[in-house]
Amino acid sequence: MGEKSLPPWDRGRNMARVVRQAAGFSPEAPISNERLGELLSLQPEIFASASREFSEAPLSLAIHRWRGDRLSLYFRRSRVTGRRFEASRWIADHFWASPGDHWLPAAETRTARQQFQRAFAAEFLCPIEALRDLLGDDLSEERLEESRDHFIVSPLMVRSHLANHGTIV
Hints:
Low-confidence stretches: none
Number of domains: 1
Radius of gyration: 16 Å
Largest sheet: 3 strands, antiparallel
Strand order of the largest sheet: 2-1-3
Structural class: mainly alpha
Oligomer: single chain
Shape: globular
Distance between the termini: 28 Å
Helix content: 40-55%
Mean pLDDT: 83
């Protein structure tokens, strides 16, 4: 079965593993704010603390300006973990979008593109095997919180990622 015939969430997870490796990230290590910022040419401070200035936008959006291959990024999420997830979705969209696409939305609609982005972002920020190794057999709230803090992701993302891989219901 070729990559194109896989469901978008499997393609997203696979692409996240490829990008992590190509960027020189360890398969089990968390991605720091500094390294995530480097990938998108952002100052790491954008991920340093929660900010209300981002919460007014109706959606997250990256606008690709082909001259100079630059992106203008418009975050929606106010929490650090939400902005990290949005940034990772834009990295994913770089691999989904056609060369002529200028608008790279990180919308909440249920589309194949959104499924690809979300699966990519989850696996990119918090590789499932590393998460399982960190948790071991202990799925207590305390261990889930520790893993959330370790990978700098939201508690919902940890739970969703584990559920999507059949580790929890």
